[in-house]
Design brief:
It is a single chain. The chain is built from 10 helices and 22 strands. The strands form 5 sheets. Strands 8-9-12-13-11-10 form a 6-stranded antiparallel barrel. Strands 1-2 form a two-stranded parallel ribbon. With about 450 residues, it is of the alpha+beta class. α4 packs antiparallel against α5 and α9 packs antiparallel against α10.
Length: about 450
């Protein structure tokens, strides 16, 4: 074994041996004496991103880190999609990935920090075999772009790619005392081995009880996942809670072939599990069977699907019960705690080997969200200092914008993404990753913190 290989293995071992934190330095403060309604009622019929929300309603994560959190189950689901020889199975797993990415928001009633223009975030997971890079590519309107990929190769290509951008439109409904968020932007999964491209648009998010009662939220709306090569489609609908339909967080759907023949039914809870069946003639019976399983106390989904009466059921995804939310710390999971941790190996030139190539974990650019001083103060419970730093950073950004307007500074251009029309859905604009980020040449990164 060469010295280089030994060094790589040692560095990788060091990374694996890192003991990630499982809490923050300070618990979430009591917000009962703060009224978010007194702030939001000024925002009727206006975009909420133009208003400053008191920092006590934030969580110590940037919106870019929230996007990275969507990848929690990507290794299980997109990896399965890339390994599936059957096109129907590939669509099932892509649909399950969409559902899993909404599950991470469950109980998250705090607002992430708005990224500064040029802010970046990366997360590399040697254990889960993927990496993601995000960049705030526009400030007004606020657009966050992201690109993620498997670090496993197949025929010299990543086994899967997932990318897109998000522009959160948020509106206040004064009659219902609720906020509706509609994330604009096309989402794309590519499976290079099959030359397949899947696209969809994000679902709405509704936050309820802004005036009285316990604050809660839900995903609602419909998503259409399209396999553009095979013309196969999956329709998912997230059902809103109502007095007439008391079941919360339910989602249902089906998969169609290119001739609109129904092939598969889907049903589950977007915060808990997703099942499917190829017995499409009786959706009501399928829904009742899944509801019966959901109602069980700590059910063993896999074992239940092996029962003779349920052998036609397939479990596509379930939430990780070993990594549940911690109410003391913004409802963060163990995975969430990792996202803003700035451990030593992220500051150094640390690499590990995968498929005979070196993947780097660092060093991070100083535009990375982990270096934000306001978020760092906030997660340490130093609320006043966090507020002062947040104001300083926002003023610094405004001053740069004024200098751009007076031509003292050149117009901002994103460093790692380029705006263009989508290569498949040509009427849609999107942001494409240039792949230059992983070269780690960060000397030209802007001073934003």
């Amino acid at each position: 074994m060469s010295d280089e290989s030994t060094a790589v293995e040692t560095q990788h071992k060091n990374y694996e041996d890192h003991e990630f934190r499982v809490c923050l330095q300070s618990e979430m403060i009591d917000r009962s004496k703060y009224s978010i309604w007194s702030i939001l009622r000024q925002c009727v019929d206006k975009e909420l991103y133009r208003f400053t929300i008191p920092i006590v309603w934030n969580e110590p994560l940037s919106m870019l880190q929230r996007l990275a959190e969507n990848m929690k189950y990507s290794n299980d689901l997109l990896e399965k999609a890339s390994d599936s020889l059957n096109a129907i199975d590939r669509m099932k797993h892509v649909a399950a990935f969409l559902v899993s990415s909404t599950s991470i928001h469950n109980g998250r009633l705090s607002k992430p920090f708005n990224p500064l223009l040029g802010e970046t975030y990366e997360y590399v997971s040697p254990e889960k075999n993927y990496r993601i890079c995000c960049e705030q590519v526009s400030h007004h309107p606020p657009v966050s772009a992201y690109y993620s990929e498997s670090i496993k190769l197949s025929n010299s290509n990543p086994k899967w790619k997932y990318f897109g951008s998000v522009l959160p439109h948020m509106k206040l409904n004064i009659l219902n005392a609720s906020v509706e968020a509609i994330p604009e932007g096309i989402q794309t999964v590519e499976l290079p081995d099959y030359d397949e491209v899947y696209t969809w648009h994000n679902l709405k998010v509704n936050a309820h009880n802004l005036v009285l009662g316990k604050l809660w939220f839900e995903h609602t709306g419909k998503a259409e996942i399209v396999n553009h090569k095979l013309k196969m489609k999956c329709f998912l609908e997230y059902k809103p809670y109502s007095w007439f339909v008391r079941n919360m967080n339910r989602c249902e759907g089906y998969i169609l072939d290119s001739n609109d023949n129904k092939l598969v039914l889907l049903y589950g809870k977007w915060d808990e599990c997703l099942f499917c069946t190829d017995k499409v003639s009786n959706p009501s019976d399928f829904h009742k069977r899944v509801e019966k399983i959901i109602a069980m106390n700590d059910p063993n989904y896999e074992k239940i699907c092996q029962d003779k009466d349920n052998s036609h059921l397939q479990l596509l995804w379930k939430v990780d019960k070993q990594d549940l939310a911690n109410e003391k710390y913004f409802n963060f999971t163990k995975f969430t705690f990792k996202l803003n941790e700035l451990h030593a190996q992220l500051k150094e030139n640390v690499v590990f080997s995968q498929d005979n190539r070196l993947i780097s974990l660092g060093p991070l650019p100083f535009t990375d969200s982990r270096y934000r001083p306001d978020m760092r103060f906030y997660e340490q419970g130093e609320i006043d200092e966090a507020g002062h730093e947040k104001h300083r950073l926002e003023e610094k950004q405004r001053e740069k914008a004024r200098k751009v307007d007076t031509q003292e500074l050149p117009v901002w251009k994103p460093m790692w993404f380029a705006k263009c029309n989508h290569h498949i859905v040509e009427k849609e604009e999107t942001w494409i990753f240039t792949n230059e980020y992983w070269n780690r040449e960060f000397d030209k990164c802007p001073d934003i913190f």
